[in-house]
Amino acid sequence: MFRRDLLQDKVVVITGGGTGLGRAIGERYLELGAKLAIASRREEVLARAAQEMTAQGGEVFYKSCDVREEKQIADLFDAVFAHYGKVDILVNNAAGNFISPTERLSAHAVDAVLKIVLHGTFYTTLELGKRWITSGQGGVMLNIVTTYAASGAGSGFVVPSAAAKAGVLSLTRSLAVEWAKYGIRQVAIAPGMFPTEGAWSRLVPSDEIAERLMHRVPLRRVGNKSELANLAAFLVSDEAGYINGEVVTIDGGEWLQGAGEFNELIDLSAHDWDQLSAMTRKK
Ligand SMILES: CCCCCCCCC/C=C/C(=O)SCCNC(=O)CCNC(=O)[C@H](O)C(C)(C)COP(=O)(O)OP(=O)(O)OC[C@H]1O[C@@H](n2cnc3c(N)ncnc32)[C@H](O)[C@@H]1OP(=O)(O)O
Ligand SMILES: NC(=O)C1=CN([C@@H]2O[C@H](COP(=O)(O)OP(=O)(O)OC[C@H]3O[C@@H](n4cnc5c(N)ncnc54)[C@H](OP(=O)(O)O)[C@@H]3O)[C@@H](O)[C@H]2O)C=CC1
I need a surface site. Which of 85, 92, 143, 215 has the fewest CB within 10 A? Predict the structure, then answer.
């Protein structure tokens, strides 16, 4: 669906790029001519991913980096600049999350999520942003958030994630204005349900929960990683050069179904409607 050279020779850093959605985005970028640098805590995961991702060609540099640690982020960008000579695009995709009643959380559990999602995204953004501003080079930052951030509704049972992702969205919009003069563009994606090992193991531990959640999606299916990857490719490309500070939701209509007061009526049959309309029409 895209020109094969859409991202030709663009250097892209993807945090959490060795697994799940980060990896799917990276694979699509590679097909479109980009050069990748993937980073996360587990070096062995990155090494395996890099090897598999380059099986069809392309270049994937990897480096272990904990985005909660300022020094490790500086080391990451030093290494990527030394390897490729530049960075054009940053995808802030690394995250942590799990379901829990909020009153069961310790301060440590809250920090575990906030530090990866909010602090980690802020630190990578700051480190690269300063380098771009100093060198006069611009670029694009894509932040992966969630529908409960984009809708503004938040969500029970994942409250540290809801608070952190809302902060990331605020960072996106704030810097879209403040850093535009430096040629730095900010965009975000709010994915709905995309099955990945990382998300499912922590958020959808039973088939019953999966079934309940699925019922919330008007399209009655989960998303394909390739659908998300295509959106991520467009948003960071020059073709989307006038989109700045925007978050694009890709969720099969899930959040809208939850938002409309009468959408619960979706399951009524024609017979049910015959009865209801007999009751509601003026006699
Ligand atoms: C179809 C539908 C689609 C539904 C899909 C809809 C998608 C919703 C949006 C999805 C958003 C995502 O981000 S999905 C991304 C999912 N991927 C990830 O989370 C990958 C990275 N995650 C991790 O590394 C870990 O899970 C995480 C806990 C966040 C961080 O690990 P750490 O090693 O730093 O932390 P730990 O030392 O293990 O734990 C820190 C504290 O947190 C507590 N803790 C850890 N896990 C806990 C848990 N499950 N329940 C309660 N408490 C927990 C511990 O007890 C500790 O508290 P104390 O005991 O007090 O010390
Ligand atoms: N899957 C879904 O349905 C949805 C996902 N999202 C978002 O999509 C993104 C990807 O999630 P998904 O692919 O599902 O899950 P994954 O668990 O596969 O991805 C999370 C990644 O973040 C990395 N990571 C976690 N902590 C750190 C850290 N401290 N430093 C560096 N890297 C870290 C992990 O690698 P490592 O453990 O090696 O550090 C992992 O690669 C996240 O931002 C998530 O919030 C949003 C809505 C829905």
Answer: 85
pTM of the entire structure? 0.97
Considering the domain boundaries, does residue 4 fall inside one? Answer: no
Residue 3 lies in a domain: no
Report the separation in Å between the CA atom of 279 and the middle of ligand 2, taken as the mean of its atom positions.
50
Q: To which residue do tokens 């001519």 refer? A: 33
Residue 226 Cα to chain centre, angstroms: 13
**DSSP at 11:** E
Q: What is the mean pLDDT of residues 183-199?
A: 97
Residue 85 in tokens: 């000579």
Residue 88 lies in a domain: yes
DSSP state of 22: H
Count of residues making up the chain? 283
What is the extent of the structural domain holding 43? 11-280
| Cα(96) to centroid(ligand 1), Å | 5
Q: Which residues pair with 37 in a beta bridge?
A: 13, 61
Q: Which residues are catalytic?
A: 148
In contact, 129 and 234? CB cutoff 8 Å: no
ipTM passes above 0.90: yes
Q: Which amino acid is at 85?
A: G
Residue 201, token pair as written in the block? 């193991």
**Tokens representing residue 105 in the block:** 């959380």
- Average of pLDDT values for 171-182? 98
Pocket of ligand 2 (CB under 6 A): 15-16, 18-22, 40-42, 45, 65-68, 93-97, 116, 120, 144, 146, 191, 193-194, 196, 198-199
- What are 221-232's pLDDT values in tens digits? 999 999 999 999
| Ligand with the closest atom to the CA of 216 | 1
Task: Give the CATH number of the domain where residue 48 resides.
Answer: 3.40.50.720
Strands 139-144 and 89-92 turn out to be: parallel
